[in-house]
Amino acid sequence: MVRLARLFERGAPRRVDVLVVGLGNPGDGYAATRHNAGFQAAARLAKRARLEFAHRAAESRIAEGSLGTQRIAIARPQTFMNESGRAVRKLLDRYRLDPAAMLVVYDDVDLPLGKLRVRERGGPGTHNGMRSIVAAVGEGFPRVRIGVAPADPRAEIRGDLADYVLEPFAADERAEAERAADRAAEALEVAVRDGVRRAMDRFNG
Q1: What count of other Cβ atoms lies within 10 Å of the Cβ of residue 26?
Q2: Could you give the CA distance from residue 4 to residue 49 in angstroms, rounded to a whole number?
Q3: I need a labelling partner for 169 at 20 to 30 A (CA). Which of 7, 13, 37, 141 fits?
């Protein structure tokens, strides 16, 4: 009985102050695609906090720990993008948090590559993962958007938008995409440590 109790305690969620959710599609085939920019930023935030994605729960891979004085959980849902809301609802229930205590980071085709936008709340735009989340929990949560559109504002996205976001970054885009993921992780850390307004001031320029 004691052994079973200890196993249960190890699997129980910690109390956390902030939930960070990076959006993407599970599987190696999607890892380097534009649509997985949120996964990349979440992984970099976990590295900054020296945390590992050691937990599997709420249809997600989760890293739990601390960032400064804040207790955090960083999650990468293992549903496909269009069903992100199902995992997010389970994550909020797991940690008994309101949506306002959650930060979501994701790719945005309405921003050029390398640009970030931090917002306190808002609609889903054209992003199917965000549409799923907003349908599940409403609009009242902060988010960090990572631009994945062509860096040249004169360039147009040719073909189907869904195909575009599911493609890997082009060879001449990869360095900027890496920098953007690093900056997004930094923006998330500032938002967790110092508040979303501070992150907006620093990264929305």
Answers
A1: 18
A2: 30
A3: 141
Element (H, E) at 22: strand 18-22
124-175 pLDDT, tens digit each: 988 999 999 999 999 999 999 999 998 776 667 776 777 889 999 999 999 9
In angstroms, the CA 124 to CA 187 distance is 20
Domain limits of the chain?
A: 14-203
pLDDT tens per residue across span 91-137: 999 999 999 999 999 999 999 999 999 999 999 988 999 999 999 99
| Residue 148 to residue 164: CA distance in whole angstroms | 10
pLDDT in tens, 49-96: 999 999 999 999 999 999 999 999 999 999 999 999 999 999 999 999
Category of 50 on φ-ψ map: left (φ > 0), alpha (ψ -120 to 50) or beta? left
pTM: 0.90
Superfamily for domain range 14-203:
Peptidyl-tRNA hydrolase (3.40.50.1470)
Q: How many residues does the chain have?
A: 205
CA atoms within 13 A on the CB side of 187: 32
| SS3 state of residue 85 | helix
- 129: closest CA among 18, 23, 11? 23
Q: Are 84 and 132 in contact (CB under 8 A)?
A: yes
Catalytic annotation, residues: 35
